[in-house]
Design brief:
Strand content: 25-35%
Number of domains: 3
Order of helices and strands: EEEEEEHEEHEHEHHEEHEHEHEEE
CATH architecture of the largest domain: 3-Layer(aba) Sandwich
CATH topology of the largest domain: Cytidine Deaminase, domain 2
CATH class of the largest domain: Alpha Beta
Radius of gyration: 19 Å
Helix content: 25-40%
Number of strands: 17
Shape: globular
Number of helices: 8
Structural class: alpha/beta
Largest sheet: 6 strands, mixed
CATH superfamily of the largest domain: Cytidine Deaminase, domain 2
Strand order of the largest sheet: 12-11-13-14-15-16
């Protein structure tokens, strides 16, 4: 059963006036808009990053961010997660292993407002283009399963249906059945939430498909490879840098996935009829 919009923490009610056929309706109507909240991440008391995110599935977001950024190596490196609501946002405090803390302290970061490009504030080029281990698994996947999975994910974007303002990231098995969907105002945040959910639920994700309702940027490929998933399917186009990383990381990159059409950009042999 879908949660009523009025009781969801990720959207809020507002009054609007509609324009239809060029005319402004005289009476206001109730509408729902997605929430966007400053979310600060702290690791063992070290303030690391602040993003604007949708305040739902934040534990998944924190773990997925830590995994895809290389702060932790596995979910077992997380000793605890606390969410601390503040008057102007939410602080997520993660307790991580001492070895990961030492590594974190050696990295210099100045990141904020990642909703847009996802890499704003990274101080050095090596941090942006950090190496990603190639995906070692990934069985052949039928292209019709990928197409079916994207249709399935679209049908599960509850927050987008209410607000029209969010991206989604989903994971489907090789059969094209979607098992997890996470939504956020930021496409990178949605994918981090998905990566965290896969790790926290100990799902064997490698032979499945990651789906995103956006373009496929370099960082979206980076996060997919970090999650050990060999197929990334996007509604829109990839960038040239994303394609090069997908080639190197052994990720099959699928773009312009709409209805029964798609374009295969890397490792097309993994996609079979």
């Amino acid at each position: 059963m879908t949660t009523p919009p009025s009781s969801r923490p990720d959207c809020t009610q507002t009054q609007v006036k509609r324009v239809r056929g060029g005319a402004i309706a005289p009476a206001p109507e109730t509408d729902f808009v997605a929430e966007e909240t400053p979310v600060a991440l702290e690791f063992n008391g070290i303030s690391h990053a602040t993003m604007l995110a949708t305040p739902a599935d934040l534990e998944d977001f924190a773990v997925g961010f830590a995994l895809s950024e290389g702060i932790i190596d596995s979910v077992s490196d997380v000793r605890g997660i606390d969410l601390l609501p503040q008057c102007d946002g939410i602080v997520i405090q993660l307790e991580i292993s001492s070895a990961c803390e030492v590594r974190l302290k050696s990295r210099r970061r100045a990141m904020a407002g990642r909703t847009g490009c996802g890499l704003c504030g990274v101080e050095t080029l090596p941090e942006v283009l950090r190496p990603v281990a190639p995906v070692t698994n990934g069985s052949p996947v039928r292209i019709r399963s990928v197409l079916a999975a994207m249709r399935d994910m679209r049908a599960r974007q509850a927050l987008h249906d209410i607000t029209g303002a969010t991206h989604a990231a989903g994971w489907a098995g090789a059969d094209g059945v979607v098992a997890l969907v996470r939504e956020d105002v930021g496409r990178h945040n949605a994918l981090d939430k998905l990566v965290g959910a896969l790790a926290r639920q100990a799902m064997n994700a490698g032979d499945g498909i990651v789906l995103v309702s956006s373009r496929a940027s370099f960082e979206m490929v980076q996060k997919t490879a970090a999650a050990g998933v060999a197929v990334l399917a996007a509604v829109s186009a990839p960038t040239a840098l994303a394609i090069r990383l997908a080639q190197d990381a052994n990720v099959s990159l699928v773009g312009f996935l709409r209805n029964d059409d798609a374009t295969l950009y890397s490792h097309p042999d993994r996609l079979i009829p």
